[in-house]
């Protein structure tokens, strides 16, 4: 079984912000313990108090308004975010990242959270299908996400996916409706939060400092970033890895042969 830990970044309602991001980390069941341990070791190395009380939450670390980040110099806090992303960038090769960046205005009147959730579930389902198609590995998938943000909206939506399917058909590889957990108790939801925040910085502010550290972890095949989706405004050029890799794939690969000119 693979578990997809999900979390979001960016405000849905704040009109000052353009993007909402939903991001997830897919982990094979036997790797879960190892990744949690790496994250715990990292938090303990910060020596900021009882590591069970310390939550890795991208925006909270960056803004430094709450303990234990309050009082730490900004440069130090941003270094903590960078270092914490190493838990993901140096994880076992089977750990894959997924993210959907939704330009809220471009998707209006659709709810960006629902839209991103349907898309990321589809991407996770396709990833599991590919494991079977290319390696004969049959895995079910389970989605785990933070209780506080989206439980009411998404619990019902996920049930609908199971019964009626999505825009792309039924998600046959997903085992259940999502499980909602308290992010304070789940290091792996916290890793998903850091991934979401790094991706949000990339799309909202063009700040690649954090995103570039984990870009290689997105699910991809044949050079196409299947694990990263960018819903951008129509007619806007974009050179992010998701848009670039799809543009290259869609280019005509075989040009018609030139007719030789006889002299
Ligand atoms: Zn793009």
Q: Which outline best applies?
A: globular
Rounded mean pLDDT is 87
Low-confidence stretches: 253-263
Which strand order spans the largest sheet, edge to edge or round the barrel? 5-4-1-2-3-6
- How far the N terminus sits from the C terminus, by CA atoms, comes to 66 Å
Element-by-element helix/strand order: EEHHHHEHHEHEHHEH
Largest sheet: 6 strands, mixed
The portion of residues assigned to helices is 40-55%
Bound molecules: zinc ion
CATH class: Alpha Beta
Q: Can you name the CATH architecture?
A: 2-Layer Sandwich
The total of helices stands at: 10
| Total beta-strand segments | 6
Helix-and-strand structural type: alpha/beta
Named CATH topology: Nucleotidyltransferase, domain 5
Tell me the domain tally. Answer: 1
Using only C-alpha atoms, the radius of gyration works out to 20 Å
Labels describing this entry:
six-stranded mixed beta sheet; 15% strand; 43% helix; Nucleotidyltransferase, domain 5; binds zinc ion; single chain; alpha/beta; 263 residues; disordered C terminus
Give an account of the 3D structure.
- 36% of the residues are buried.
- The chain has a 6-stranded mixed β-sheet, sandwiched between helices.
- The chain has 10 helices and 6 strands.
- Strand 4 (141-146), helix 7 (147-164) and strand 5 (179-181) form a beta-alpha-beta unit.
- Helix 6 crosses helix 7.
- Residues 253-263 have low confidence and may be disordered.
- With 263 residues, it is of the alpha/beta class.
- The structure holds zinc ion.
- Zinc ion (ZN) is lined by residues 230, 232, 238, 240, 242-243.
